[in-house]
């Protein structure tokens, strides 16, 4: 990956609908040259796909919580498989330190969050402890900063 690829990635990251013509003009390549580079970035796995950026609050999910889970290692895979299927779960991270997992959860309201934690997290027999931190406001949120 060179500087041109990085510039193409940055443009796609800012707006994945940027036209090939606009990108070509910006980086000094032909349209086919930009198309070829994007195809190579996809083939390498660096670009995993394209998506839209939905405002969770406007979609009805006004609560953002980070949940740490302490779990018996024998139940970890089963819990992760179940949580990964849930629309409330935005991210699942296996972490170091005192806890096993860090979850990023979006919920409609506090009742919705409480139900989810009780039914889907604490409800697992392997879970030994759960701690929840509520985000009061989000100042910045990106997958990677290009």
Beta-strand residue fraction:
15-25%
Q: Extract low-pLDDT stretches.
A: none
Q: In order across it, which strands form the biggest sheet? A: 2-3-1-4
Question: What kind of sheet is the major sheet?
Answer: 4 strands, antiparallel
Helical residue percent band: 25-40%
Description:
The chain has 146 residues and is an alpha+beta fold. It folds into 2 domains: 3-43, Winged helix-like DNA-binding domain superfamily/Winged helix DNA-binding domain (Arc Repressor Mutant, subunit A), CATH 1.10.10.10; 63-134, Alpha-Beta Plaits (2-Layer Sandwich), CATH 3.30.70.920. Helices cover 37% and strands 21% of the residues. It has helices at 3-14, 20-27, 31-43, 76-84, 110-121, and strands spanning 63-71, 89-94, 101-107, 127-134. Strands 2-3-1-4 form a 4-stranded antiparallel beta sheet. Strand 2 and strand 3 form a beta hairpin. The longest helix has 13 residues, at 31-43. It is elongated, with a radius of gyration of 20 Å. The model has no long low-confidence stretch (mean pLDDT 94).
What brief labels describe this structure?
Arc Repressor Mutant, subunit A; alpha+beta; Alpha-Beta Plaits; 4-stranded antiparallel sheet; elongated; 146 residues; 37% helix; 2 domains
